[in-house]
Amino acid sequence: MELFEAIGSRTSKRDFEDKPVPREIIDKILKSSLRAPSWANSQPWEIAVSTGKTSEFIKTNLYELAKNCTPINPDYPFPDSWPEKQGNNMFETGRRRFEYIGINRDDKEKRTEFSLRNYVFFHSRTAIFIYMDENLGLWSVFDCGFLAQNILLAAHDLGLGACPQAYLVAYPDVLRKAFKLPKNKKFLLGISIGYYKKASKVNEIKTFRNEDVINYFE
C-alpha cells in the first residue's frame, strides 16, 4: 500500500473479531513504528501490549468502573469544554455515526451500550497502551503522537483494524496494576487493534475532514 493511499483510506474500527493477532505481526508493527521522530531523539514513549488474561483483567475492571459511572481519573485530564468549531465537529461526527448505525438520539440505553464497548477493546483481544514518565512534558506527548500515528498506519497496511481511544486510559490505576507499573508512569492513549469485522456497519464509517484550516501566506 502506498503512503498516500494508507493515509487517505485508514479509518478507526470499532467492531473486532474474537481472533488473536500473532505476536510476530504486533512486533513488526511496533518495531517499525519506533522509527517515529522525537525531540533530540529522546524517545519518551513506553509501550505495553495487552493480550490473553491481562486483556481480560483490564476489560473486566474498566467495564465495571464505567458501567457503575465511577468518575474517571485519567493521568492527563480530559478537556472540560471544547472551542465552538471543534465542539461542532465532534457533535456532527457523533450524530452521523449513530444515525448510520441506526441508534436514535433519544435511545439512551443503546447509546450507553455502544459507549461501554470502548472499555472492552471493541471485543478485540489485543490493545496497545502508550505511556511515559511523569517528568516528561508537552513536547514528549507530541512525540508519542507520532508513534501512535505510525502504529495506526502500519496496522492498516497489514490489513488490521485499529482505534485510538482516550477511554482506555480513563482509569489508569487499573492499567498500572495490570502491567505492574509504578505511579510515576502515566498513560496517554490506548489503541484497540485486531482483525475487524468487514460486514459491520460501524466499520464502514469514514469521518469528514475540514479543509478550511489550511492557510497560505505569500
Structural account:
The chain has 218 residues and is α+β, with helices and mostly antiparallel strands. The protein has seven helices and four strands; from the N terminus they run ααβαααβαβαβ. It has one domain: NADH Oxidase. Helices cover 41% and strands 13% of the residues. It has a four-stranded antiparallel beta sheet, with helices on both faces. Helix 2 packs across helix 6. The model has no long low-confidence stretch (mean pLDDT 97).
Query: Which blocks of ≥5 consecutive residues have pLDDT under 50?
Result: none
- Count of spatially separate domains: 1
CATH class: Alpha Beta
Helix segment tally:
7
Widest beta sheet: strand line-up? 1-2-4-3
The percentage helix is: 40-55%
First and last CA, distance:
35 Å
CATH superfamily: NADH Oxidase
Averaged pLDDT: 97
Beta-strand proportion: 5-15%
Tell me the major beta sheet.
Answer: 4 strands, antiparallel
Order of helices and strands: HHEHHHEHEHE
CATH topology: NADH Oxidase
From the alpha-carbon coordinates, what is the Rg to the nearest angstrom?
18 Å
> What's the architecture in CATH terms?
3-Layer(aba) Sandwich
